Amino acid sequence: MDILRRSAIPVRADSHAPLAASQHYVVVTFDDGLNSFAENVLPELEKRNIPSALFVVAGKLGTVPTWTSFAEEATWASVSHVLPGERMLTADELREISGRVVIGSHSSTHRMLTELDKTEAKGEIEDSRRQLEAIVGTKVALFSFPYGEFSNDLLAYCKDAGYDRVFTSLPALALGDPGEFVSGRVQTDPTDSPLELRLKMWGCYRWLPHAFTIKRALFKTLAVRLREAKPVETP
Ligand SMILES: [Zn+2]
Known about the structure:
By secondary structure, the protein is of the alpha/beta class. The chain has helices spanning about 1-5, 35-45, 70, 90-95, 120-135, 150-160, 195-200, 210-230; strands at about 10, 25-30, 50-55, 100-105, 140-145, 165, 180-185. The chain has one domain: TIM Barrel (Alpha-Beta Barrel).
């Protein structure tokens, strides 16, 4: 986050202000709504005056995420770094932090929306918004797709449900138009080097949509090799 402050201007995810083409801007978002966001992330962001958005799985508050193993196979492995014992924020915890972070919806149950029928998909999009608005007491205007998967139909359902902006995981430059409805994102990982992080913030990854999948596959292979190479201890 110190690198972010030095390399770009942080802006809110719900910003509709025109941005100068000569500057680098960054919107910081988090998916799922784990308790580590409130405990570890938010205080560090606030120290640096960096606004953020948190996309919450409305029907899973207070639970331990069960989609972790599936997420490892998906394009957007947002919960692959979940620590043992980590859980989702509860409704009370979400209410407490809602004035300090923009709360958005990340569906009701974190299912792959592209695999649901129309009624189920609309339910995930509309019900989650209603549930979250009842908790935080303000309009929930942003949505992010579980696993980043979406279709034109899903975009239309989000518009019908009243969202002002939706976030995918396609690494496209975002907010070029202040009224933008579909915004791309680029995933950052604990394994990113400072240079890699800077390049991502400067938009250099927008032409490489499969970079993260390839990188994750490489790390997986490497991890397996390291495990296999580890000598077995004998008593
Ligand atoms: Zn997610």
